[in-house]
């Protein structure tokens, strides 16, 4: 398990597209935080989700999943390691980019956002494990957030991204809503990760 964790962290920090995306996300979130703490929370959650999807799905896209599964045949351990690494990166990036928000006196929202980020990262990893194609997943969720959660649900319904945003504002319903979406997604990922890689 420790070896898989090290491998995931090393890969994420050494692949140029990964660290460039993570750095860009942190800088963009910090810049948005100067304008509004709510926008910072939105960028922190969506950015964490997107980063988790990219970090996880790259294994399938670049065929390195074969090597990972040869090194660690227990695929559930790989899934756990990917969730931990995505949550770690999400928290570190959100914490760093949110310093601006915290310095403006919005410490309550800062800590509430940091509490929602790990679960958002796990949700992203679970989705990427099931779909395995980052472009499809990110495009699908862009439409989902814009039309279903945004226009229809007004970002207040019992839906995953809405739950994350409710949690960032300190609404006690937010984390349970996000958890209610994450648990089945993680269960599906635990089942699907055993799928053969030949078709991907």
TrEMBL record:
State the protein's name.
ABC-2 type transport system permease protein
Q: Which parts of the chain span the membrane according to its record?
A: 12-33, 39-57, 78-103, 109-128, 135-155, 175-193
Give UniProt keywords alphabetically. Answer: Membrane, Transmembrane, Transmembrane helix
